[in-house]
Write a structure and sequence with these properties.
463 residues, mainly alpha, two-stranded antiparallel sheet, 4 strands
């Protein structure tokens, strides 16, 4: 068997390998071409699928949107129907329950205001209640002061009550009473016509008012109708036994008549009601002075002076000290009175009023001289009395220059009536009483004699 040579075999193998390579290349190209076409087809297919899906999705969205619009229309119509029905129901409910709803709204508003501003709904009622209680407290204070015959202080309390509650009719009526009483106590303020008009009004308002007969009694004293005045004070006392003013006025009437024992009884009765009443203490001291018991007078009047700054208390207390030989204390109290009378804040009713001063008796058995009395009504009246008293005090101390100066001041202030000095007799009674009770030097006695000649020029009085 013949075999191919090696070169031929090699060429055949090489050729075969080339063909195989060419075939692989061709196959690879075909595969690549096929793959490319396949990829293109896949891409085209995918695109077609996406478009179809998008179209289907859009259709579904449109379908959903249509259904949603249908639901909105249905719900809208149902809502309108519900609102109409709810509106009708609410209106009927409001009409049927408007009172309750108004209450609820009010309570809600109250709660909101209290929460937001801290102001209670009842704040105005509380304020009104406090106002009325405050006015009532002042009115009750005025009533208590009125029973004590503290007319000026009671008037101020009633003024406060009316200022707080102008509609408080009882306080206004009480204020009218104290206005009358204070006008009676003030000589310059007393006018009969308005007083009578106010009394008539008060009588119509209350038939059992204990102050009406009391006021009429004071008026009767001014008219020098002492018996009628006594009956009116007794009538007032029957209506109110706690009112000290009646006891004091009855005591005054007894002092006018120089019935010292009965006057003491009335002033003592006043002190059983009000132990610290300054006017009752003072007038009881006057009774002791007219009984020539100056130690008891000083003791009682010192108590009065501790409760009140009144001109008549200082004036009489100085006299009591002078009559036991304590001229230094007499000067102290009389200068105290002069300083008070010069005070611009001096008040009628509080610091002075109608002061009655009986003449001193010559001895304990003298019952007639104390029936003579003078009354101080105005500031000038008190200036005359106080300066006359100081002139006596200074003369006893041999301070004749000061004594003369005080006498001149008293003489100027003393009102001249029918050519005579109103308090001339009072000065002579006080100076003569000192001359009789004290062993005076001839110099002092001559000084008093000269002053007697000045006052006795027109036979001022017979002693």
């Amino acid at each position: 068997m013949q075999t191919d040579p090696p070169n031929n075999q090699l060429q055949a193998i090489t050729q075969e390998l080339r063909e195989l390579r060419d075939f692989k290349t061709t196959s690879d190209n075909q595969i690549r071409s096929h793959d490319a076409r396949l990829l293109a087809m896949e891409t085209q297919l995918r695109t077609l699928v996406d478009v179809d899906e998008e179209q289907k999705l859009r259709e579904k969205v449109q379908e959903l949107d249509n259904r949603l619009n249908e639901l909105k229309d249905r719900l809208g119509s149902q809502r309108k129907g519900c609102i109409r029905r709810a509106g009708r129901w609410l209106w009927e409910f409001i009409k049927s329950n408007w009172t309750f709803l108004a209450f609820v709204v009010s309570v809600g508003s109250i709660g909101y205001v209290y929460y937001e501003y801290g102001i209670s709904y009842f704040e105005s009622f509380k304020t009104l209640a406090n106002t009325k209680n405050s006015a009532k407290s002042y009115k009750e204070t005025g009533d208590a002061l009125l029973e004590r015959a503290e007319f000026k202080a009671a008037d101020e309390a009633y003024q406060s009550a009316v200022a707080i509650d102008p509609s408080y009719s009882e306080a206004r009526q009480s204020l009218m009473r104290t206005q009358i009483l204070n006008s009676l106590d003030s000589y310059s303020a007393y006018t009969p016509v308005p007083v009578e008009a106010k009394l008539t009004y008060l009588e119509n308002a209350s038939q059992d008012d204990y102050l009406i007969p009391y006021i009429r009694g004071v008026i009767q004293i001014d008219h020098d109708r002492k018996n009628e005045a006594r009956e009116l004070f007794i009538d007032s006392l029957k209506k109110n036994k706690e009112f000290v003013g009646n006891y004091i006025q009855l005591g005054y009437l007894d002092l006018f008549a120089a019935n010292i024992d009965r006057a003491k009884a009335n002033f003592s009765a006043a002190l059983t009601k009000v132990p610290d009443h300054p006017l009752a203490l003072y007038n009881l001291g006057l009774c002791h002075m007219l009984s020539l018991d100056f130690d008891s007078a000083i003791k009682t009047m010192e108590r009065a002076a501790s409760y009140s700054d009144r001109l008549e208390i200082f004036l009489s207390l100085g006299e009591a000290y002078r009559n036991i030989g304590r001229t230094d204390m007499a000067v102290f109290h009389h200068e105290r009175a002069r300083k008070l009378i010069e005070d611009p804040n001096l008040k009628v009713g509080a610091n002075y009023g109608r002061g009655t001063f009986n003449f001193f008796p010559e001895n304990r058995s003298d019952e007639d001289t104390p029936k003579i009395f003078v009354q101080a009504l105005t500031i000038n009246n008190y200036k005359a009395l106080i300066n006359y008293e100081l002139s006596i005090d200074y003369a006893l101390q041999r301070k004749f220059s000061d004594a003369k100066k005080s006498f001149v001041e008293g003489y100027k202030a003393d009102e001249t009536i029918n050519g005579e000095k109103g308090f001339g007799c009072f000065y002579l009674n006080r100076s003569d009483f000192v001359i009789r009770r004290q062993n005076l030097s001839p110099v002092i006695s001559r000084w008093f004699s000269k002053k007697r000649s000045v006052l006795d020029r027109n036979r001022t009085c017979e002693l």
